[in-house]
Amino acid sequence: MFPSSSPETGREPWADDPPPAGGAAPSTGPTMENDEARRSGGPRRLRRGGSSRRSDEALDGDDEEETEPPVEVSRQLSLAVAGFAALLGLGLVLGAHTSGPDHRLPFTIVVLTVQMLFLLGWTMVTRPPALPVVLGVGALSALAADAVAVRSSEARLGPLLYIAIGAVLATVLGQLVRRVDRVRVTDSLRTTATIMFGTVAFATLIVLSRIPAGTQAIVVCLTAGAVTVAVARATDAFAAWPRLAPQVPRGAAGVVGGAMVGTLVGAVLGSYLVTPFTPTRAAILGLVAAVVAVLADLAVSYAEAGRLMAGEQPTVWAARHVQGPLGALAMVAPAAYLMCRLLL
């Protein structure tokens, strides 16, 4: 009898094909897919949300979208800060000329006023822990530094250094009292030291006024420093280019140009001052003061941008923008004393 089904039934249509060389059987469809997956390095992994990994073009597109545009430079604000820097330097220079051997009270009042401005401005902007303690210790250190600068038998910088160190230690001890403030003591140590040393640094001008040729050094250094900051800020108002950082509204043209103009002003003043000043020595003093002032002012701008990027809420508008010139001249004061001792 013939079979009820054909012998071809159930057989694969490719079973009669000749085997490949080497005698290996041809692979089926799933095996070929596994080979392709193995050659491609395995199946694509899925993210936790179930979506596959994005392509490099998509990542590049996201990076371009996340790039923030440069911060806009306010022309009126830059000009206002430049004017404040010029007025601050002018007030200190004119106050230095009122100082005499037995008549130092007017200049001391001027210096104390600037110290209080520095203390209030920097504490309101940086917000260190135990704010009342910082303000109280800072005010006492300013009074003590001015009194020592006026009444000490010899005009030296050492007693002021001891007062600044003692103020930092006293402030840190006051911050350790409350648990809320204790947590932030380590992080704010640099800020606390900057506030105390900057406040005491202005008393260096009183010490410098008691040294022969010290008043002339004050004129050269403070004028160069104030002109540097004013020119740098005014240049940023019109040409803040090239930008030093997208988040910082400052330009390299203002920084370099301000330092050059400050050095030139110092050299010009040296040609009109009496011995031991010469244009060369005055230019060196002006260069040091200009570099110190512009770097201090630039550091304040970077710190302000860092606080804004970290999400901190902006503080008092006036305090934020006078912080740069105050910090610049606070750094210039001890630099002027050191250069006066070294060159004059």
Explain this structure to me?
With 344 residues, this protein is an all-alpha fold. It has one domain (81-306, 314-343). The protein contains 13 helices and two strands, in the order ααααααααααββααα. Strands 1-2 form a two-stranded antiparallel sheet. A hairpin with a 2-residue loop joins β1 (243-245) and β2. α3 packs across α13 (317-343) and α11 runs antiparallel to α12. The longest helix is centred in the C-terminal third of the chain and has 31 residues, at 279-309. It is flat. Mean pLDDT is 85; it is low at 1-7, 12-16, 27-33, 36-41, 46-52 and 57-65.
Give the SSE layout.
Blueprint: H1 29-39, H2 56-66, H3 75-97, H4 105-126, H5 131-151, H6 158-175, H7 179-182, H8 189-201, H9 204-209, H10 214-238, E1 243-245, E2 248-251, H11 252-272, H12 279-309, H13 317-343
Helix pairs in contact: 3-4, 3-10, 3-13, 4-5, 4-8, 4-13, 5-6, 5-8, 6-8, 10-11, 10-12, 10-13, 11-12, 12-13
Short note summarizing the structure:
Residues 58-69 have a biased composition (Acidic residues). By secondary structure, the protein is mainly α.
Instruction: Report helical residue fraction.
Output: 55-70%
Task: Note the gap between the termini.
Answer: 131 Å
**Number of discrete helical segments:** 13
Total strands: 2
The pLDDT mean sits at 85
Strand content: under 5%
Oligomer: single chain
Total of domains: 1
Order of helices and strands: HHHHHHHHHHEEHHH
Transmembrane segments: 77-95, 107-125, 131-150, 157-177, 189-208, 215-232, 252-275, 282-302, 322-340
Biased composition (Acidic residues): 58-69
Biased composition (Basic residues): 41-51
InterPro entries: Flag_MotA_CS
